[in-house]
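Inputs:
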Amino acid sequence: MLDLVILSAVLVVCMGIVLGLTIGIVAKVFEVKQDERIELVEEELPGANCGGCGFAGCSDFAKAIVGGTATPDQCPVCAEESVEKISKILGLETEPNKVKKVAVVLCGGDKNNAKFEAGYNGINDCKSAVLIGSGVKGCKYGCLGLGTCARACPFNAIEIKNGLAVVHPELCVGCGKCIETCPRNLIKFVPETVRIHVFCNSPEKGPAKKKVCSVACIGCRKCWKNAEENQIIMKGFLARVNYDFPPPPEIVEAAGCPTGCLRRTDGD
Amino acid sequence: MPVTVRLFRGGVHPKEGKELSCSEPIRTAPLLDKYTVILHQHIGAPPKLLVKNKDKVRKGQVIAEKAGFVSASVHSPTSGTVKLVNCHGPAGSHTPAVEITSDGKDEWDDYVKSDPDWEQLDSNECRKRVEQAGIVGMGGAAFPTSVKLSPPADKKIDNLILNGAECEPFLTADHRLMLEEGEKILTGASILGRILGVDKISIGIENNKQDAIDKLRETASKYSVEVIPLRVMYPQGAEKQLIFAITGREVPSGGLPMDAGCVVQNVGTAAAVADAVRERKPLIERVTTVTGKPVCNPGNWKFRIGTPLSKVLELAGGIKKQPAKMLLGGPMMGMAQYSLEVTIMKNASGVLLLDEDEIAQFGSQPCIRCGRCVEACPMSLMPGTLSQMIESEKFDLAEYTNVMDCIECGSCAYVCPALRPLVQHMKRGKAEVIANRK
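Outputs:
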């Protein structure tokens, strides 16, 4: 009996040695040389695999950076210091002052402010809801508030507040995933530094908009008159902030928007 | 004569609800002060407006002219003064319309007079009259009839099928029309047959309308039309299902009835064709069923096109209690409405009010893979699988699995024990596939 135990133990140890050696030799012979910088770069990337850079996830992007087909600042999520670190790993010069862009939903019509013409009990998805009578909201340009964009956001930066999608700029990293999901094209990319927006996207005439929403831009031009030239752009009955040349935040008080659709996003 | 009762594959049989209005004879609605005629009432290009504000028009005058091959003209339902407005369309959004304030005279335009020599007309002239009358498919699809009557030369049409199935629950408009104006339908059928150059004309009727079958059989042989009873099953009145039940032919995937050598017309359309050719009357009125439990006096009415739903319900004696849903069309495929401003259009086969306990509440629970939707689907699709593909946005896969063949009949959602909103998923999938193809 004891013999048998000793024999088995010796056999297992021998097998272990032989197989271990084989693996060692094979690993040496067939070794794949990988640029160690890829791993270092990947460590600096956020690892959210959001796809905002246009590559299939962070590790694919890291390969592209090292391979020279992409630049580190293509990542919309990376903080500036990560970009610097990556550049240092690769020995590249960084371009300073990259302005981070965030998403904003240009509609202010929540359940209290906007008129809903009918009840909707279909699929809880904006893209399905617009197929039925182009949505039940009175305004045919406003946010439907069913949260298709919020579900698409990998960073939970969009919240549905009282039937209206609201982007939290501090959580938004600017990957742009929400933009293509909105059937109304309401979500726009804006520089993070600009915290003043006209929360309306309806090209209709003022009185028509007023009928269906109490916070619509009625095209009164008060903000336009109070701003310097080109800071606010008027498109028919719709005012737009010029994001390349934004008006100062004080304009909100100065203009006194009668419907309150010109608002600041900080401080509330 | 042997009783042949034919059927297609799949389908469901919801509660019929036809007893509410099937014995009510068709009543003609009185002349109203105001009609709001929506311009774009059909599938295809919107027509070109011919009138302007404050114009005087006469009954039957063209107010918007057919623009393009797939399009239809729209006529004034009475004589009066024109005002251009935007009104609630049945699809929810506002749409251009012409409001006609009646002058009370209700005078026909000069061209509308009966033509004693209509039987001598050749097929081109008949087709032209159908086109001028602005006739569209009156079963619900609103496809311009003149287009169906002009098949391309390489498609051989040998079968004309009249659709008297009326498989939608609650609706009885076609049933009453067949009982009361059977002769007109059969005349229309023979005119349509002459235009298409076919000798085989059949009319399919579900055998829950035995009185209509008997009534039409009395005179059908005179017009060489064969009356074919069909088994009661929804959607028996869908074009492809009807063709299969009557001829045994299958319309190829993505094809039209003409690919199977058939043309299908609703019985209401046939009656309108008879009016258009014999009396040169344009399509300005239609038979519509006003029904549902909350309606005081359900019945069948001949309404002029442009009658607002508020008047429709007033004529039906008003409502007994607050309905939970108002539909234009039947309960399976009808469109829910939220405004009484919506007006009767050429394809409004019914106005249906439903009670709280009669409407479906979708829960969108997970599919339990019971396969009942597959059994029910008359197009042999897999609605459950397709809906999961569409939910996960795999539209290319859905296209490959033939989502475009879905006729949106609603049979799958009707049988689904998990209360999944399958038809809405299909609609979304079809819309995405069409958008991707562009």
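Remarks. The mean pLDDT of chain A is 87. Residues 125 and 148 of chain A are 6 Å apart (CA to CA).
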